[in-house]
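Risk register update: the risk that structure generation would not scale has been downgraded. Supporting records follow, first protein first.
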Amino acid sequence: MRYKIVTTKNIVSLSSGFQESQRREPGIPRMGLIYAPTGFGKTTAAAWLVNRENGIYVRAVSLWSPTTMLMAILAELSIAPPRFPAQMLQAIVAQMKLSQRPLFIDEADYLLHNPRMVDAARDIHDRAELPVWLIGSQKLEKQIAQRKIVAGRISQWVKFSPCDLEDTQRLAKELCLVEVQVDLLERLHQAAKGSIRSIAVGLSRIEAFAKVQQWNEIDAKQWADRPFFFTWQVDYQEE
């Protein structure tokens, strides 16, 4: 398997949304939200975008507080944290303005454990006047929508959708070192329920099997009834 970012429809949607958030129009907020069930490739896509845009990337954890959140961002900026949180926020804003680097906060659902963390992200956006993107689950989208002061600043709501068959075919073509026939890809797509993570796992197993058999291509008949992955790997629906 090759390791690369494949331009699926979700990647195209994310790229377009981010470009819109970069526009400097008066009165238009520049926050963005990426949301989807687990397994839909949010973090991988965000990492690709962060690298492309030289962004600041932090991943929230359950034990974060407003202070540790600010310290994590400062660490990514290679800045020694000042003594007080207000000074930390000021240092972040100053460096973002200087470098013109956008901020991405992954696992942003954790920010909702303490409303002050959401407010801190909003303050950074307002004062730096640069894109600030939150990445999280479908629950995050619903909860943010209820916080009008934050929701009003999000101009780009990017929902990652299940991969369709065309995406699956593109993934196979660009990632696999063997040719996977359409009839087998149709079965994999159906079994994966659109989860890009599960599709990648399935493609890896298909390729490994074909290599053992010394085949350059493989179809549904040759794969027979072998499992693509464990059943729990496609149980992506969130409560």
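Supporting record for the second protein:
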Amino acid sequence: MKNNTCKIFSILLFSSLMAPLCMAENWPRFRGANGQGISNQSAPIEWNQNKNIKWRSELPGPGSSSPVIFGNKIFVTCFSGVSTGDQDTSKLVRYVLCLDKDKGTVLWKDELKSNQREDPYSGFLVEHGYASNTPLVAKGKLFVYLGKSGIHCYDLNGKKLWEKNLGTGSTRRKWGSAASPVIYKNTLIVSAAEEALALYGLNPETGEQKWKSQADSLEMAYATPIFMNIKPDRDDLILPVPGELWGMNPETGKLRWFVKTNITGNVSPSPVLGNQAVYIFGGYPSLRRCAIKVDGLKGDLGEEATLWEDKQSSYVPTPVYINGRLYWASDTGYACCADAKSGKMLFRERLDARGKGSRGKPFYAGAVYADGKIYAVSRWGGTFVFNADKEFKLLAHNKISTDDSQFHGTPALSDGKIFLRSDKYLYCISE
């Protein structure tokens, strides 16, 4: 079988580089091209409040979503109007912002009052809030999913084109929405697992429903899906759910294959691809990570599809696959590297990020890669830069001491710059 596993990632990355009249490196969705967290360019290694910060733009509220970039525009979401413990969320407001990539000035902003009864701002919902789904830029449009308040479509100048409600329910734990929208050809795909126990396929031009796949096992499935090239004329939508990994037809929503896993409880990290395998992390209360070989085309792929499994994993942060290795910063504060072929841990080193992280877990954002380096953003303790190699070497520990808020969002990388959001500011980090 030819090595087609990462073909779709390569195609997406190549097309973003070769887009006519556009030299910018786009970062159009959660964790960039196909959600893999990889930039093809270099990025700054060191920064602080006095060094390598090109601009800082104040945000109207906190959020765990990541910034996305297309051309000279950055898009990010925030929320305000609630305090920890609030049962009444009637004053909740979400914000969709577009900023100039070079200057950090706000080009346009939309304020959206909650049009549904939201879950109380308590429990695990406080860990991430009401602006957790990263926007998507595709087909000249911006797509923003806001859980119970639906999905909203804008043109890139801020004109609202359409909106659609995808469900107003809550799962038992009332942890709120997290997964981000993705697109495959002419199908916009949204995981409304929390609101409707369903995945939706929509027409991106109108919001009209093309398909809906509903399943009870979507409860506690918070991961953003990715796409995997299975053979020359076929790509599958890849989604981990508690106890299983799914491969679906992205144009119809029908399940093509599945693999049973020991990652149970809930699944938050997104899958990553490499060497004809899918790597999935997560689980609760017992963490797991495993490698799944996808060379079957339909049905139950069986136990033999699981290449390896290990307990050293991550609860929320998504890993990066690069050069045959997996890298991640665990929720509990360790920089980790494992051999992707065998699953063997190559290093696990404590990072000084404990600070005052909620529930004692200092990392929430996923790791990203640029030019031989891994970037891991902690909630309170700064950003750690370490080498993408078999042996651990900390290259920099960067803190912005003038910002005492949390950093939840995975950074975006574009044109040699890092775009990093906290609960107070959006930063452009550039040498």
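Residues 1-22 have pLDDT under 50 and may be disordered. On this basis the risk owner (M.S.) recommends closing the item.
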